Each structure stands twice: as structure tokens, then as C-alpha cells.
Amino acid sequence: MLSTHEIRKKYLDFFKQKSHAIIASASLLPENDPTTLFTGSGMQPMVPFLLGEKHPRGTRIADSQKCFRAQDMDEVGDNRHTTFFEMLGNWSLGDYFKQEQIPWMFEFITEELTLDPKNLYITCFAGHDEFGIPRDEESAKMWQGLFAQKGIEASIIDDAQANGMQGAKIFYYPASKNWWSRAGVPEKMPAGEPGGPDTEMFWDFSADLKLHENSEFKDQPCHVNCDCGRFMEIGNNVFMEYFKTESGFEKLSQQNVDFGGGLERMSAAVRNDADVFTIDLFDSARGVIEKLSGKKYGEHSEETYAFRVTLDHLRAATFLIADGASPSNKDQGYFTRRFIRRAVRFASKLGINENFCAEITRGYIETYAHQYPDLETKKDHIFSELHTEEDKFRVTLEQGIKEFEKILAGFARAFEKTGQKFTEISAKQAFKLYDTYGFPLEMTEDLAKEHGLTVDKAGFEEAFKKHQEISRQGSEQKFKGGLADTSEMSVKYHTATHLLHASVLKVLGSHATQKGSNITPERLRFDFAHPEKMTDVQKKEVEDLVNGAIARDYSVTFELLPYEEAKKRNAIGLFEDNYGDQVKVYTVGDPLGVPVADPSADTFSRELCGGPHVEHTGVLGKFKIVKEESSSAGIRRIKAVLE
Description:
single chain, BirA Bifunctional Protein, domain 2
């Protein structure tokens, strides 16, 4: 049986034989994308190229991209959802289209992975009348023909959601299921956003498992998009050929293919086991939890749920810390902290009450080190962050329990004084325990039950919803706009980030390399390696260097260069392992000079980047640092504006 690592290799080798350039995974922390905190899909780093920007590696690209979706946290615990996963991807950037992609995927699934096509089911786009986007009959008929070559009759139907499978193999679904864009369905897409119909591949884990009959959906018709667990999506072929305008949709200048296939889910299909947490990637970590808890995975449903949450959250935290999101109270680090704490809480349900996170993570690092060697390089840092956070949270648990005991004492005093007996923890009390002390609602409920009390769960959820809405509004304000729509100010701030990077290196030293950035039309945010707070003198020196470069009105140009040539010219770059043989190099100043971050020199900076940028620096305005602060251990953050 193929291991998960072998599946990944087979996929990349398959598309390498189809003339695709294989690129390394981008970081989980997006570079210059203010629309999101994390890389949540394989296509996210590819958006500029789907919109027409030339990729330095050509028009055929493939990779296995690390992804993280914090919004799926509440889904974890079933047989198939994980917050961290790898997305196998291949792209055609104006090259091949449906006629090549669909047969290739059928070949990979049935020949390379040797999966039985009898268990493979397909969905296609049913069309969108309001925007005049037609039904994707071409894809449906192509799949039908491929099944026929295997001697399988594959009928095509429309109404599976209402009437079930009806013996069909190929199903039309509306845009809510078979349309892909970062913003979701066509109605929600902003102007300038690319998207397109997709055709998805589902694996049937067999009705014999009775997954539907034993699920909450047992009284509804079962179909491939049912959430009962019988069917699992293993791949999505997006035909990204449209972009949204103010009045509707138009065709992009090029037809693109954007395939995304969940590596873990493909591995589950190869094993024909509907539980992704039983694949080999989890073996070591699962074994450690079994050893520490004395419990066996899969024996009891409540314990299995706790196993899955713990396994998922610590794997996600391991990769987040490795990519620079150390636990904190803000931005990406907030999610790392939350995931570690949730893992500790669910592990306690299994009877694990001593520090254990680093031991679980050690198993993940050993499992993934061959594919992601930076995990081994950074393991001491990862272990340290996990241990520190776990210690902090165990103190938090203690504080929360003390606060809960105060509530009980208050109830007792009230009873002695008035004879009134309280039987419920109020929504306000429960939310204070959650918001102030990090106490999960389920822990409050557990403790309340032990004392014969209930919790105003509905009131808590209403308070929590209000809290989310306030947070979301703040997030939308913080991350609105950006490079995805190449607005003028975003482009200016992107160029200013290059000037800032060169200046920080000049003032602080060669160690102060970029660790991330976030750009909106209102400001730039720049993270860099530095062990201590910048002095006022250093900040002034950086400002003066940037403004000197702006005043000199340098030209901004780019070249496609061999990677080694770019290094010879002292080009700098973020995530250097991701670059291929040909790279795009942006130069501020004379492209033949050596970048020295000096306004009086002919060349100010040279950096590997995908663009876009202004054509000359004089249009940027005055650069001003408004804040310099800590981002995480060993990482500083500058927030700056152009006036």
C-alpha cells in the first residue's frame, strides 16, 4: 500500500512528466496578501499569475502546498476535517484546459493510485442563470467517456440533493457547490476577483460502512455532497476563466486550470478507510497519545473526538510555529495559541494532565522532516514555544477554576442571605470565564454539571456571536483592500516595502531579513528578524534612507534571471527555497549596480518578488514609521504610512 509520502511523490512526478515545473510550498503566512492571515489554499500564492502576471517558471506549475484554515476548527472531530493539510496542485496558466486536465486526473487516480473507478463519483457545475454562466456539459461528457473506457456506465443527473444517487455517477450541482473563488459564490465575489466552475472528484467509502444510516443525516437522501461521511471529496478541478466586473462576469484574458487535491484525503481513499486520522502521517503522534492516556483510538466516540482534535491542533501548531507564527495574543500567533490550548484541554479529557505537546510534536517532525527539513532545523524553537505556552495555559486553567469557585461561593452566600437557590451559570459569567480566563464553554459546562448546575448556553452563544461580529469588523478594517486588486495605494506600499527592507538591512545589519509583510491601501506592515527594540535613532535612520530613495526618484524595473545569477547580483528574497531556476528580480535604481541601500548610490535595492510595483519611486510621497513593536520572539514589526 502506498504511503502518504509516496502519494505526494507520485503526484509531483506525474505532472513533472507532463512538463510541469515543480515548485516548493509557500509559507503558511502569506506574503503581501492582506486579504487573509493564512495560506488557506494552493491557489492563493498563484493569484497574480492566474490574473495574467507571468510566472518565472512558465505556464505549467505543480506543487504540494501547506495550507491552514482556522475557520474549520469547529469541524475538526469528524472523520475528514483537518485545519492543517497539504494541497496537491497543478496549474495551467493560459496553457492547457479541460481536454487535458480531466483525462490526466482520471489517469492519475485510476492508474497511478490504482483506485477502482467504481468508487469514484463526479460533480459538475449546473450553471448560473443570473450571470449568464452556462452549465458545464463539456466536463460531464468527458468524465462519462472516461468511465465508459473502463466499462462503467456513468449516467448524469441534476437532482441528487433532493432525490439521492439514483444509480448515477456524475451530478450537476449549483454554484454553492461547484464554483470556486476565494470569495465564494458568484454573488459574493468583488469586482476584479477571478473564479470559475469546477468539477470535483469524490471517493465512496462504501455503503457497507453504514456511515449514512448512523449519522444525523439518516432521514435525508444520501448523495455525494451529503455530510454523513460516506463520500469524501479528494480533488477539485477549477476552470478559472472568469472575473467579476461591476456589471457581471467577463472572460479572463487566459483560460486557467487550478487543481487542488487533499493529500490526506487521497491517502484515506488509497487505504479505503474513511477516517483520515488513521493514515500513516498520524501514526507516531496517535501512538504517543495512546501511551500517555492509556486509551485506544477509535474505541469510544467521545474519546475519538478528543484524539482527533488533539492530533489536528498540535500538527497545525507545529507548522505554524515553524513558519513564524509563535503563540501570541494577536494576528497569526493568536490562532497558534488557541490551538495549543484547545489541544491541552481535549487531551485532559483523555486523562493527560502533564505537559505533553512537545512529545507529540517530536513525532510530527520525524514524520515530515524529509519533506520539510526546516522542521528539524527549528525543532528546538518549536519545542520551547510549545512548552512555554502549555505552562502558561495550565496556569490559566488554575485561574479559571478559582474564578468558577468564586461564582459558587457567591451562590452559597446568596442562598444563606435570601434563601434564593441559583441553578444556572449566567451567560455573563460563562462568557467572562471564556473571554478573560480562556475557559472553554464545555469546561464550564462540565464543572457546572458536577455541582448540579446548568449553563445559559443560548445566552453565551449570543454574547459570543456579538464578540465575533466586533472582531470580524475589526479584522475587515485591518485587512481590507490589497494587492489582489492591485489598487494604486497598495502598489505604492508594496514598492515602499522594498525600500524599507533594504534600509533595515543597512541600519541593523544583515540578520534583519524580512519575515513577512501585510499591505493595505492605508499602510504597510513589515516583519523582520531582530532581537531587540529599535532605538529612535535607528528608526530615524531608516526613515531617512527610504525618503532619500523616494526623493531621488529611482526607476523600478524587473528582469527574469537564472536564480544563481540573481544571487550573484546580491538580490535578496523571502522564502528563498521556493524559487525555481528562473526568478523575477525587481531593482530600484540601476539594474546593473550593486544594491547598497544608500540614496546617493545608483542602485538602492534588488529583490526577488512577483510584483506589482510603481515605475519610479518619486510618486510614493513621504515615508513615516508610525510604530515599531515586537511581533514574536526574535521578530520585530514596523508599521508605516505614506503621506
